[in-house]
Amino acid sequence: MNQKPFIALDFPTWEQTKEFLEPFNEPINIKIGMELYLQNGPKVLEQLIKKDYRIFLDLKLHDIPNTVYGAMKGLAQFDIELINVHAAGGKEMMEKALEGLNAGTPFSRNRPKLIGVTQLTSTSEEQMQSEQLIERSLNESVIHYAKLTKEAGLDGVVCSPLETKGIREACGDEFLKVTPGIRLAENQVQDQKRIATPAKARELGSTHIVVGRSITKAENPVEAYHAVLNEWEGLL
Ligand code: C5P
To answer: Per residue in 19-33, pLDDT tens?
Structure first.
């Protein structure tokens, strides 16, 4: 599967979101994360669904299984393509998330694909070892979480493009590898740590990429989007 990049709409208000989207005269994929969703609620999601965007709802749920079940059952009413949980919430939590989505998806629609966040792309190996007390390499931790996610029946993971090869070997080609931490060669890294260019991500086996600030903070976001898209689709 080679999907168009998902643009991360990390804006605080609906007005800023609308203003950003206005110059795009083509179908694009968008990611709605906690900044936009938590400050504007489901109505922002409803507005964007009406406009026919393909949507990744990135709320990274992480709570007890019963609570995640209820939240996913409710969110399944929305026509979204991808949704996620933290794999660190555990196998039972992920199974319940999937059950909730299955229970809440209307009959007329496909269930949103459910993916597990492995280790955030802003986490370094040193941070993981000292803060989470995981005495393994970051790559081992990511692959462990990917396998757990697969065992729980989920459709894939969110990971760094640098980890997709190992995940492909452990979980197969069909298992989704959705990768943020994407930067064009000329961009600043900011808080991300495990990054790659769109072309490198493609070469390494990402099935989807998520791009935020390289597009949203660009002087010309539509141009920046096309630079990302062309690299991702292999036109450069
Ligand atoms: O601006 P930037 O391209 O770094 O944005 C990346 C987006 O992907 C952000 O919205 C962030 O919340 C999200 N994300 C991430 N790392 C993960 C999962 C999601 O950066 N592991």
So the answer is: 999 999 999 999 999
Q: Separation of 164 CA from ligand 1 center, angstroms?
A: 16
**Domains, the chain:** 6-232 (3.20.20.70)
Percentage, residues of the chain above pLDDT 90: 92
As a whole number of angstroms, the distance between CA 99 and CA 105 comes to 10
Answer whether 158 contacts ligand 1 (Cβ < 6 A).
yes
pLDDT band at 185 (very low <50, low <70, confident <90, very high): confident
Whether residue 58 has its Cβ less than 6 Å from ligand 1: yes
